[in-house]
UniProtKB/TrEMBL annotation:
GO MF, any single term: citrate synthase activity
Family matches, as Pfam families: Citrate_synt (PF00285)
Sorted UniProt keywords: Acyltransferase, Transferase, Tricarboxylic acid cycle
Gene designation: gltA
Metabolic or biological pathway, per its Swiss-Prot or TrEMBL entry: Carbohydrate metabolism; tricarboxylic acid cycle; isocitrate from oxaloacetate: step 1/2
Name of the protein in its database record: Citrate synthase
Keyword Signal: no
Originating organism: Paracoccus litorisediminis
Gene Ontology CC: cytoplasm
Catalytic activity: oxaloacetate + acetyl-CoA + H2O = citrate + CoA + H(+)
Length: 430
């Protein structure tokens, strides 16, 4: 990054010069690393709306144009022409693989899809009605109790093995969480199936009869994985980075990311969005909910709408909307009432001054639930599917940070507005 430019700041009469760093794409950044030392002041930015927490070469988002690139490749092209494991290779290593590199990577991932047999016991400690995200946080965190040969983060080889293990085992763990919640036996991964087909097989096959994975559904599942793979410094990725900055092992860091993703303002929005669409139920009830979303005194928000970065259409939502039509047609689900409500809600909202003025558009979570429900998943599995898809993004960002010699523990400061210094008062004198 060229840093020939600078900005001048006047703090109580003292002039501070701040270098300006220029990116490959996107806004310049003010380098404030020396600000506290030079001017004895902090910057203040709750929610980090104007703060770059790191430099990264992995994913770029242009919120105004509605663009998303993985390692420079637009998401629309990757969703149309690539496949998830190739996208995993691209995010992890920075370049599209050659045929040999792809075969080697696919073999390495395939051969790590089983979990240690002892891990099956963890599931039995949960209630059957536990949310699968609760199970996943617990079981993924427990991986650090099993895979000690890939927890030394100072060893690049162990970082590599841990990355492949996480990408390979997350679908198996997510499928096990689903099977446990419906009282069916776990289905082992199969090495003759590709990544998405294997996940569908582990979720929907039963020992009592053969299960055929529809290649078109597997393709749709694979595309959903790709659309969710990474997204710059979102809340859960920032959680993984902050956890990793202390030197915590990668399994614990990914468990922290899963916990953060669960929130309805983040990855939990796909479940909340479908439940909202079901609650609206019919097109004639949409105006009532639009009014609730606009009412300052009503905490209700349109789930699947709005985004911290996108002030234009989320490019993933566009691809997901096309995919929803394809999958529902494939499944012979015509005039799906939820999809009709979603499309009409999108149309009405995008014409409404409130949403237009606040630049609120459908995001990745608006259509994904409709596809997943049509594929046979319960709403409780929507965020686990987001989590397994995002694991490659989390671990790629974690590897980038750990591999950076400048890496240091993340430790923000604060604006203290509490009580001033005061002396203790004995109980009898209060
Ligand atoms: C994801 O960061 C990422 O990249 C995340 C993600 C990823 O891939 O990792 O893209 C995945 O999390 C997508 C977002 C999923 N969440 C939802 O769909 C939940 C509903 N959306 C909102 O909660 C909200 O839009 C956020 C949380 C997504 C963004 O919130 P911001 O950036 O903090 O914006 P804000 O809350 O300050 O809202 C700005 C204004 C506010 O009104 P004013 O105070 O200015 O009057 O817009 C309003 C908000 O009230 N607003 C909404 C709204 N979202 C924002 N009003 C109604 N419905 C909404 N959905």
């Amino acid at each position: 990054m060229a840093d020939s430019k600078s900005a001048k700041l006047l703090v109580e009469g003292k002039e501070i010069e701040l270098p300006i760093l220029s990116p490959t794409a996107g806004p310049d950044v003010l380098d404030i690393r020396k600000l506290y030392g030079q001017a004895d002041v902090f910057t203040y930015d709750p929610g980090f709306t104007s703060t770059a927490s790191c430099d990264s070469t992995i994913t770029y988002i242009d919120g105004d144009k509605g663009e998303l690139w993985y390692r420079g490749y637009p998401i629309e092209q990757l969703a149309a022409k690539s496949h998830y494991l190739e996208v995993c290779y691209l995010l992890l290593y920075g370049e599209l693989p050659t045929e040999d590199q792809m075969k080697d990577f696919e073999t390495r991932v395939t051969r790590h899809t089983m979990v240690h047999e002892q891990m099956h016991n963890f599931f039995r400690g949960f209630r059957r009605d536990a949310h699968p995200m609760a199970t996943m946080v617990g079981v993924v965190g427990a991986m650090s109790a099993f895979y000690h040969d890939s927890t030394d983060i100072s060893d690049p080889l162990q970082r590599e093995i841990a990355s492949v293990r996480l990408i390979a085992k997350l679908p198996t763990i997510a499928a096990m969480a689903y099977k446990y919640s419906i009282g069916q036996p776990f289905v082992y991964p199969r090495n003759d199936l590709d990544y998405a087909a294997n996940f569908l097989h582990m979720c929907f096959a039963v020992p009592a009869e053969p299960y055929h994975v529809d290649p078109a559904l597997a393709r749709a599942m694979d595309r959903i994985f790709t659309l969710h793979a990474d997204h710059e410094q979102n809340a859960s990725t920032s959680t993984v980075r902050l956890a990793g900055s202390s030197g915590a092992n990668p399994f614990a860091c990914i468990a922290a990311g899963i916990a953060c993703l669960w929130g309805p303002a983040h990855g939990g929005a796909n479940q909340a969005c479908l439940e909202m669409l079901r609650e609206i139920g019919t097109v004639d009830r949409i105006p009532e909910y639009i009014a609730k979303a606009k009412d300052k005194n009503d905490p209700f928000r349109l789930m699947g709408f709005g985004h911290r970065v996108y002030k234009n259409f989320d490019p993933r939502a566009k691809v997901m909307k096309e995919s929803a039509d394809e999958v529902l047609d494939l499944l012979g689900v015509h005039n799906n009432p939820t999809l009709q409500v979603a499309k009409e809600l999108e149309r009405i909202a995008l014409e409404d001054e409130y949403f237009v003025s606040k630049k609120l558009y459908p995001n990745v979570d608006f259509y994904s639930g409709i596809i997943l429900e049509a594929m046979g998943f319960p709403t409780s599995m929507f965020t686990p599917i987001f989590a397994l898809s995002r694991t490659v993004g989390w671990i790629s960002q974690w590897k980038e940070m750990i591999g950076d010699p400048q890496n240091k523990i993340g430790r923000p400061r604060q604006l203290y507005v509490g009580a001033d210094k005061r002396d203790y008062v004995d109980l009898g004198k209060r």
